[in-house]
TrEMBL record:
Residues 18-39, 482-492 have a biased composition (Low complexity). It comes from the Bacteria. Residues 1-39, 467-505 are annotated as: Disordered. It comes from Pseudonocardia lutea. The chain crosses the membrane at residues 76-100, 284-300, 312-337, 357-376, 419-436, 442-461. This is Integral membrane protein. The keyword Membrane applies. Keywords: Membrane, Transmembrane, Transmembrane helix.
Length: 505
């Protein structure tokens, strides 16, 4: 029977039981033949694709993207290092200004050394002479007095033409008198006696001020709610002067203590409190700053890099303070009249010269620290520099010099303790810088140069013992048991390490 196709039937075709003849589609579609052989290029491409598929199947699946970056464990030493370094670097400029201010307020010699040269500066002396002359002629009008004198002569019968001519000369007379007074005042303020008197006045005034702030002055005391000045020293001085002048009755004046109210007592108490706070700050703050910086460097993960950062940061801080001083200088000079600007600029430069000296010193210290950290680092330039220096020192230690150093006690000892000797020299140089009284930048450079020379000498003396004099390493006993207790070590060829044939081989 044949297969009955029902195109409109929704079910499958029903077979009658016997094989049917092929349909029209089956008759027209050719049966698959044997596949044609692949070319070499196709086979290579097939192999490549199979290898890629196998690699993809063998590779583990990629992890899902994390919602946020995983954090590793916190290294608290690094956190503490960062905190200490930030605090130390912030306290560096505060320490500089605190020490300078304390020196100016508490140290009379330092104050006079700072302010004394102001009186000796030509620009300041010219400004002082001009101001004194101006005040003199403000109180004494020379031209008006001359005109009054001419009028008085005219009233006494001086002819009018002569009086008119004399009136015309009063102006030049006043100008000439002003020039004369200006020259005399200039000679006065430029004289060594005037400068010495001014420095003496500065000394006495500062001593009294420092004693008041320290609470050691008996002249200024607190009574009630006011700070009062005890006039007893002035009364005694006046009494002695009067007796010396012949007024003998002044000797009968009894010791008295009249007072004059100066200002509220709270102002004095506040000033004394600030003075004591400044004294403590200037004494301990520099050491605290140094401790912060050293502690931060020691706790850092990379100590050399932390040291380099400290040096560069100190240099940058000193440059920032120097720029701030220049800005303040411009403000100060711009706040005074034009005729006094030269004197104000000179006085400002003299007053802050010790601050600038401290900035230069600390800048040099930061430069030395940064260079030391860089030279000891792993950069190619630093390695070349160290290699060049080492080869230069080694070239001086060749031949007989090297043999003598190796045979003597110095060379081997330095070789065995090289790190300790270098560390001791660096610590000694640091102590010299710290213990010097106000070292300058030039002093720092001299200390560094001496340190480099000493390190070069140590490198020159570094010479190990010759090979024939070195102690020989211990030789193991062939018959001694090995750690497992089996006797002489056996090899796989039937011999022990002594070359003897083992029994039973």
């Amino acid at each position: 029977m044949s297969v009955v196709d029902r195109p409109d039937s929704s079910g499958p075709a029903v077979a009658t039981g016997a094989p049917s003849a092929p349909t029209t589609r089956e008759a027209t579609t050719p049966a698959p033949d044997t596949a044609a052989p692949l070319t070499s290029a196709e086979r290579a491409e097939l192999e490549r694709l199979r290898a890629e598929l196998a690699a993809l199947r063998a590779a583990p699946p990629p992890p899902p993207p994390p919602s946020r970056r995983p954090r590793g464990p916190i290294r608290w030493a690094s956190v503490a290092s960062a905190v200490l370094l930030v605090l130390g670097l912030l306290l560096v400029p505060v320490s500089v200004l605190a020490v300078w201010t304390h020196n100016q307020i508490s140290d009379t010699d330092r104050f006079v050394a700072t302010m004394g040269p102001v009186l000796d500066d030509p620009a300041v002396q010219t400004a002082v002479a001009g101001r004194v002359t101006q005040e003199v002629f403000t109180q004494v009008d020379v031209q008006q007095l001359a005109n009054q004198a001419v009028d008085a002569l005219a009233a006494q019968g001086l002819p009018a033409p002569i009086a008119d001519r004399l009136h015309g000369l009063t102006g030049p007379l006043a100008d000439g008198t002003r020039s004369f007074v200006q020259d005399k005042v200039q000679e006065l303020v430029s004289s060594p006696a005037f400068v010495a008197a001014g420095q003496q006045a500065l000394t006495v005034t500062h001593q009294q001020l420092a004693a008041v702030l320290a609470g050691q002055s008996s002249a200024i005391t607190v009574q009630g709610g006011d700070a009062v000045l005890d006039l007893y020293p002035f009364v005694e001085a006046a009494k002695q002067r009067l007796v010396a002048s012949g007024f003998e009755l002044a000797a009968k004046i009894p010791p008295i203590h009249p007072t004059i109210a100066l200002f509220p007592a709270s102002t004095l108490i506040r000033a004394q409190t600030l003075y004591h706070l400044l004294d403590v700050t200037a004494t301990w703050l520099p050491w605290l700053t140094l401790a912060f910086l050293i502690g931060g460097a020691l706790l850092a993960r990379n100590r050399r890099r932390a040291t380099l950062v400290i040096g560069l940061a100190v240099m940058g801080t000193m440059l920032a303070l120097a720029a701030a001083l220049l800005v303040v200088r411009g403000i100060v000079v711009g706040a005074v009249p034009e005729q006094s600007s030269a004197a104000a600029a000179s006085a400002y430069d003299i007053i802050v010269r010790f601050v600038r000296a401290a900035l230069r010193t600390l800048f040099v210290v930061g430069l030395v620290v940064a260079l030391a950290a860089w030279v000891t680092g792993p950069s190619s330039a630093a390695v070349r520099i160290r290699g060049t220096l080492a080869r230069g020192v080694a070239s001086l230690r060749r031949g007989a010099v090297a043999r003598r150093l190796a045979e003597g006690p110095v060379g081997p000892w330095v070789h065995d303790h090289l790190g300790l000797v270098r560390t001791a020299l660096v610590v000694l140089a640091a102590l010299v810088v710290v213990l010097l009284d106000r070292p300058s930048g030039r002093t720092i450079l001299v200390v560094v140069l001496v340190l480099l020379v000493l390190l070069g000498i140590v490198q020159f003396l570094d010479q190990p013992r010759p090979a024939e004099h070195r102690p020989a390493p211990p030789v193991a006993d062939p018959q001694s048991p090995v750690p497992d207790g089996t006797g002489p070590t056996a090899t796989g060829d039937g011999h022990d390490y002594t070359g003897n044939v083992r029994k039973g081989s």
